[in-house]
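Appendix B. Chain record.
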Amino acid sequence: MNSLMLLFLGASLLNPVMQPAKQSSGDPVAQRDRDLIYGRKYGLSLTMDRFVPKNPNGKAVILVISGGWFSSPEALSLDFVKPMCSAGYQVFAVAHGSQPRFTIPEILDDMHRATRWIRANAKRFQIDPDHLGVYGGSAGGHLSLMLGMVHRPGDPKAKDPVDRQPSGVQAVGCFFPPTDFLNWSKPGEVMLGKPHILPNIPPAFDFHKQDAKTGQFIIINDQAEREKIGKEISPITHVGPKSAPVQLVQGTKDLLVPDYQARIFEEAMKKAGIPCDLIIKEGAGHGWLGMDKDVANFAKFFDKHLVVEKGTPGK
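Structure tokens predicted for this chain:
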């Protein structure tokens, strides 16, 4: 099994650690900056790696490192980075607070923080802050879609300059993402982590709330409340006029995320009048050889949609 498949199965500004990326002949990556800290929570640092192309086009994209909502910098595959750098894009590979410690709503907060941080540092990195793309697969695809559908505005009065930035993105590329947790493989089928084909999935859905008196975190077991959260973390719920264009790649033999998820999402996007380029791969599962070519197609999709236009989504 190749590294791409394994990827899916499985707030101070400090001076970055600069390290040239390991290069071979024709390598499009000129420099890799490791462990840039974009935020902190519960005493932990949230980090991303930045990849600078040899021939930058002045724009940037975010790669979400996430499989089963588990995130680790070690899971990053350069096969997912190089096609973007070949197209001239700076790549910010983001690691989020990982399950089993953090749940999906908390993870989403991290991803919004990451986009704000990139925008706040746009001048420093010499990139366009108004036109960001995002891409990822499986859980990373889900988080990418959420950034494309949910655009949190910045707070101009925030003490932290990062929080003054908006968090939305302007284009999304994704592989086999969950799009609707309340209608999984058919209408009315709820998938909130239990049961699931993968035994390590449930902790991401252990939604909890904090007791106002004791400060303790309490697991939410009420099904109606769980489904309310499930709806909020479903990208399909947020499809609307301000949604970002999407290119979605899905296999018909995916045993983890059914192709029904992709098809209903495409239908919702079309009803909203938002471009959604759905690419169906007959017979493909949850990952396949040659996915770097699909990433190169994401880059072409970004070339088309990360342009300056009036009323750009995500602002």
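Further analysis of this model is presented in Appendix C.
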